[in-house]
C-alpha cells in the first residue's frame, strides 16, 4: 500500500512534528494500558534531553515516568526482568551509542529471555533511542547503530522516517510482546507531517510504505533520508526521471515483498541509510533483492550511507560525511 | 532434608561422566546454604537462579528431570511448570539487574512478592552487580541478593576477586544492609534469609553473604587439583561437609535415626530413577522447536527459514545424516 493510500484510510489527521508524534504515541499508550510505564535517564522531571517525553511526568507521575540512575545495563536488565512478569516497560536509551555499555543485557538477555524460558514468558519491552549525526554531537553521540540490533535474533527494530510512522510504529512497538527498538533520528524531530489522530492507529511491524510512486528507479530510504530522497525525486522528475521512494519503516522484520515488487517494476535500486556503508543495513536489503529479483535488475545496485569513519565534531566535516539528498541524486544518475 | 540435593548432584555428575549429558556444574558442599535459603521463600516469591544453584531450584519444586533434560539439550521448562523461577543465568551476574526489575515490577503492581537473587562471589566483580544493586537500592526493590561465597570463581580465589574484606559490606554503598551467615548451617541460613525477605518486602533490599565452600570442580570441564591445594587454607567449618554436620545435629536432637535415613534414601533413589527415566524417554526435539520460542510473533524471514529446515529434514533421512 502506498503511504498516501494508507493515510487516506484515516479519516482525521493532525499536522505535528516527529517529536510530538512520538510523545502522542507514548501519552496514548500510557492512558490506554496501566502496565505501560516509561523509564530512562532524565525522562521525567526534565522531559528527556531531546524533550520527547516533556510534560508526561506531570500528567502521569513519577512512578509511570521514571527517572533512573545513569545505568544503561541497569535499566536494560531491569526492563528485561520487569517485562517477564507482564509489565510493559518503555525504556529511553538517551543516545544509541550507549547501547555499547548495555550490550550484554540487550543481546544476551533481553533478546534471548523468551527463548531461555522455553517460550513461557513474553518480553514486551520497547527501547526508544536516538541516532544520527548533524547536531554537532561528536562521534560518541551521533552513531547510527540500528544494524546491530536488527542483526540479533530475538529483537525487532523499527526506524521511522515520517511523523505518521513515528507515531504508528511507537504504538505498535509498545503493544508488541517482543522486544522492539525504535530508532529516532535526531535531525527529524522538528520535521512535520500529517498524523492520524485515531488512538487505535498503529503501523504493523514489517510493513514498508511507498512514499512516492515512480517507474524508473527504486530508492529505499530510511529515517532522515526519506525526506531527502523525496525532495530529490521531485527535482529529478523535472529531468524526466521518476523515482519510487520506499520507507521500509521496519528493519527487522523487513518487508521484502514491497521492495522486490518495486524493483521488478523499475529494474534499478538505490539503498540510502545513514549507517556506515560496510556490512550493514544496505547489504541486507540488497542481498534480499538479489535473492528474489536478480533477473529484474538492469543496473548495479547503489548504496548511500556514511563512509566507514566516525562522525566528526567539526560541523563542516560532519556535513561532508553525512549522506543527503545530493548523494541520492548522484547515485540515481550513476544508473539511469 | 537435603540428602535429595546431594544425591541428585552425585547422580548428575556420574551421568555426565558417561556421556549421558553435556557439562554439569556441581554444587557439592553448598547444599546447606542453598536448601536453607530456598526454604525461606514464600510460595509466590521469585527465585532468580544460576547454573550453580540447582539445589535451590530443586527445593523450589523444579522437577529433577527438567534440570537433566536441560543438560541433555532440551528447553529449560520441559515439564511446563509455572513456578516463579527464572531461567538459570549462565553468564556471570547478568541475572542481578533482572532481579531488580522483577522487584520494581512487584512494587509497580503493589504485589507482596519478594525476589531471591542467587549469585556467587565471582559475580560481585561484574558491572551488573553494581548496576543491579544500585537499582534495587534506589527503587526500594523487594530483593534479597543471596551471594554464596564458596571461595572460588573457577580458579580465582575469593581474595583475588576483591580487595574488600567481606562481600557483605559492599551493600553499604547501595544504602542497604549486608549480612554474613555460616552457609553450612541450613537452619541459620533459612532464618536469616527469611528475615531478609521480610525486610525486602518493606522496601529494604538485603545482601546476604553465605560462607560455604565449593568442594568440587567449577564444572565437569575442569580439574581443581591444577589450581588449588586440598584442603584449602580456610577454617574447618567452611570446608566441612554440611550434610554430615546437619545429620549429626538431627540425630543429637533425636529427630533422625537410621530408619529415617534409609527411608529418605529410598525415596530419593526412586525419585532419581524416575527423573532419569523421564529424561531418557523424552522424544527427540523436533527441528522446528528451535524457532518457536524466539518471538511471540515470528517474522516472515524466520518462518521461511523454518519451512526450509523442515522441508530438508523431511527429505533427508536423519539416520543417514547421523552416519
Give an overview of the whole structure.
The complex is a heterodimer of chains A (about 325) and B (about 325). In chain A, the strands form three sheets. Chain A has a seven-stranded mixed beta sheet with strand order 3-2-4-5-7-6-12, sandwiched between helices. Chain A has a five-stranded mixed beta sheet with strand order 9-11-10-13-14, with helices on both faces. Chain A has 13 helices and 14 strands. Chain A has about 325 residues and is an alpha/beta fold. The mean pLDDT of chain A is about 95. In chain A, strand 2, helix 3 and strand 3 form a beta-alpha-beta unit. The longest helix of chain A is centred in the N-terminal third of the chain and has 15 residues, at about 20-30. Chain A has two domains: about 5-195, Thiamin diphosphate (ThDP)-binding fold, Pyr/PP domains (Rossmann fold, 3-Layer(aba) Sandwich); about 210-335, Rossmann fold (3-Layer(aba) Sandwich), CATH 3.40.50. Chain B is α/β, with parallel strands linked by helices and about 325 residues long. Chain B folds into two domains: about 1-280, Rossmann fold (3-Layer(aba) Sandwich); about 285-320. In chain B, about 45% of the residues lie in helices and about 10% in strands. Chain B has a five-stranded parallel beta sheet with strand order 1-2-3-7-6, with helices on both faces. Chain B has a two-stranded antiparallel sheet with strand order 4-5. In chain B, strand 4 (about 150-155) and strand 5 (about 155) form a beta hairpin. The interface of A and B includes residues 84 and 153 of A. Chain B: It comes from Natronococcus jeotgali DSM 18795.
Amino acid at each position: 500500500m502506498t503511504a498516501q493510500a494508507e493515510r487516506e484510510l484515516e479519516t482525521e489527521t493532525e499536522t505535528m512534528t516527529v517529536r510530538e508524534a512520538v510523545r502522542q504515541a507514548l501519552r496514548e499508550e500510557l492512558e490506554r494500558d496501566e502496565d505501560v510505564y516509561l523509564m530512562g535517564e532524565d525522562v521525567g522531571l526534565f522531559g528527556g534531553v531531546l524533550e520527547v517525553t516533556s510534560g508526561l511526568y506531570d500528567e502521569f507521575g513519577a512512578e509511570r515516568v521514571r527517572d533512573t540512575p545513569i545505568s544503561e545495563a541497569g535499566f536494560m536488565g531491569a526492563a528485561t526482568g520487569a517485562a517477564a512478569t507482564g509489565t510493559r516497560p518503555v525504556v529511553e536509551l538517551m543516545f544509541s551509542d550507549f547501547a555499547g555499555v548495555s550490550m550484554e543485557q540487550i543481546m544476551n538477555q533481553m533478546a534471548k529471555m523468551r527463548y531461555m524460558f522455553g517460550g513461557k514468558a513474553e518480553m514486551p519491552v520497547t527501547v526508544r533511542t536516538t541516532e544520527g549525526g548533524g547536531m554537532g554531537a561528536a562521534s560518541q553521540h551521533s552513531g547510527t547503530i540500528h544494524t546491530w540490533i536488527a542483526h540479533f535474533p530475538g529483537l525487532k527494530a523499527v526506524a521511522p522516517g515520517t511523523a505518521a510512522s513515528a507515531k504508528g510504529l511507537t504504538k505498535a512497538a509498545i503493544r508488541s510482546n517482543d522486544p522492539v527498538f525504535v530508532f529516532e533520528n535526531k535531525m527529524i524531530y522538528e520535521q512535520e507531517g500529517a498524523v492520524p489522530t485515531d488512538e487505535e492507529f498503529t503501523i504493523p511491524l514489517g510493513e514498508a510504505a511507498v512514499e512516492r510512486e515512480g517507474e524508473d528507479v527504486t530508492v529505499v530510504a530510511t529515517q532522515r533520508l526519506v525526506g531527502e530522497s523525496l525532495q530529490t525525486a521531485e527535482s529529478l522528475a523535472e529531468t524526466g526521471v521518476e523515482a519510487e521512494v520506499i520507507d521500509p519503516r521496519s528493519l527487522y522484520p523487513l518487508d521484502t515483498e514491497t521492495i522486490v515488487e518495486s524493483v521488478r517494476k523499475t529494474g534499478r535500486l538505490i539503498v540510502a541509510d545513514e549507517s556506515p556503508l560496510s556490512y550493514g543495513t544496505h547489504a541486507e536489503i540488497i542481498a534480499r533483492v538479489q535473492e528474489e529479483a536478480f533477473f529484474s535488475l538492469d543496473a548495479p545496485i547503489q548504496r548511500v550511507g556514511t563512509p566507514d569513519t566516525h562522525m566528526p565534531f567539526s560541523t563542516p566535516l560532519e556535513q561532508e560525511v553525512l549522506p543527503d539528498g545530493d548523494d541520492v541524486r548522484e547515485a540515481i544518475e550513476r544508473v539511469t | 532434608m537435603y540428602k535429595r540435593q546431594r544425591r541428585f548432584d552425585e547422580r548428575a555428575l556420574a551421568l555426565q561422566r558417561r556421556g549421558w549429558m553435556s557439562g554439569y556444574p556441581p554444587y557439592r558442599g553448598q547444599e546447606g546454604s542453598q536448601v536453607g535459603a530456598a526454604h525461606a521463600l514464600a510460595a509466590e516469591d521469585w527465585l532468580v537462579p544460576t547454573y550453580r544453584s540447582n539445589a535451590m531450584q530443586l527445593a523450589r519444586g523444579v522437577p529433577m528431570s527438567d534440570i537433566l533434560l536441560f543438560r541433555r539439550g532440551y528447553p529449560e521448562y520441559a515439564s511446563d511448570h509455572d513456578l516463579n523461577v527464572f531461567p538459570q543465568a549462565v553468564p556471570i551476574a547478568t541475572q542481578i539487574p533482572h532481579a531488580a526489575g522483577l522487584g520494581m515490577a512487584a512494587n509497580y503492581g503493589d504485589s507482596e512478592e519478594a525476589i531471591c537473587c542467587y549469585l556467587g562471589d565471582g559475580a560481585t566483580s561484574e558491572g551488573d552487580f553494581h548496576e543491579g544493586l544500585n537499582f534495587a537500592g534506589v527503587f526500594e526493590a523487594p530483593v534479597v541478593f543471596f551471594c554464596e561465597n564458596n571461595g572460588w570463581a573457577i580458579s580465582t580465589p575469593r581474595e583475588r576477586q576483591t580487595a574488600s574484606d567481606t562481600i557483605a559490606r559492599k551493600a553499604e554503598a547501595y544504602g542497604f544492609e549486608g549480612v554474613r551467615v555460616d552457609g553450612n548451617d541450613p537452619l541459620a541460613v533459612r532464618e536469616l534469609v527469611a528475615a531478609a525477605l521480610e525486610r525486602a518486602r518493606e522496601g529494604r533490599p538485603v545482601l546476604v553473604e553465605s560462607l560455604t565452600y565449593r568442594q568440587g570442580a567449577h564444572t565437569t570441564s575442569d580439574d581443581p587439583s591444577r589450581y588449588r591445594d586440598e584442603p584449602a587454607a580456610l577454617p574447618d567449618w567452611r570446608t566441612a561437609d554440611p550434610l554430615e554436620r546437619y545429620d549429626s545435629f538431627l540425630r543429637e536432637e533425636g529427630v533422625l535415626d537410621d530408619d529415617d535415613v534409609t527411608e529418605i534414601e529410598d525415596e530419593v533413589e526412586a525419585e532419581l530413577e524416575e527423573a532419569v527415566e523421564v529424561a531418557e524417554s523424552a522424544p527427540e526435539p523436533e527441528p522446528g522447536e528451535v524457532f518457536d520460542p524466539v518471538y511471540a510473533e515470528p517474522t516472515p524471514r524466520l518462518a521461511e527459514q523454518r519451512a526450509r529446515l523442515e522441508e530438508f529434514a523431511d527429505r533427508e533421512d536423519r539416520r543417514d545424516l547421523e552416519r
